[in-house]
Automatic annotation (TrEMBL):
Residue span, CobQ/CobB/MinD/ParA nucleotide binding domain: 52-74
Coiled-coil region list: none
Domain of life according to the entry: Bacteria
Gene3D superfamilies for the chain: P-loop containing nucleotide triphosphate hydrolases
Protein name: ParA family protein
Organism: Streptomyces chilikensis
InterPro entries: CobQ/CobB/MinD/ParA_Nub-bd_dom, DNA_Partitioning_ATPase, P-loop_NTPase
Amino acid sequence: MPAAVHVVSIDPQASTVWWADRITDLPFDFSQEHKTPENLALLKDTGARVHVVANQKGGVGKTTITLNLAAVVADVLKETNTLQHVFIDTPGSLQDENLLLEALKYAHDVIVPMPPEPLAFDPTARTVQKVIEPAGLPYFVLVNNWDPRDGKADLDETREYIEAQGWPTLKTAIRRYKVHTRASAEGKVVTQYDENKPSFKAREDFFRLAIELGYGGR
Ligand SMILES: Nc1ncnc2c1ncn2[C@@H]1O[C@H](COP(=O)(O)OP(=O)(O)OP(=O)(O)O)[C@@H](O)[C@H]1O
Ligand SMILES: [Mg+2]
């Protein structure tokens, strides 16, 4: 019986597989396909919605967003036994652009994580303008890794930049929590975090994101 959610990584760094391998009760199906990107063509006929998570700037949170968004969507759809959503985690480098272009062929939409840091602005703009917009797909820029303890200035500046670029964006911002940073080593996704206040907040962000994107089913 297929799970409702499938995560595919096409990142040759394979950090997604390193993380997924540590998770005891993986709430979704998982495959690593950077050597066999032609397998992505199979997704076309499944009827599932295919979401690519992309930003050619490294370390912006693509893997964190992919696995945790997939986890909350899988949690909401756990009684569903047909494939509904596929999330593709992609490489954070310009060298692997061909892999990203391959994934975009089969995607319905693209989520572009970016941290609220001016250093990330130009590289994100390159990915959006050179790769994502030419693909003609709907896309959403998602602010990730915002630390509320630093105040709202960075978040506001980033939102102003996104607005000035005219990029579609999401109201939800994913806040920075230490639990997210530790989760890969602990082999957990957000639905499996311990029951404490920071974990609740961390989880809330991903449920908000899934609701805003409309990925929770009917
Ligand atoms: N919201 C967050 N809160 C705390 N830590 C975060 C958050 N998002 C990302 N991180 C941390 O930042 C680092 C980079 O995140 P991640 O590996 O998800 O980025 P990436 O875009 O997939 O990187 P790459 O381009 O190398 O594949 C990791 O240590 C991760 O735990
Ligand atoms: Mg990654």
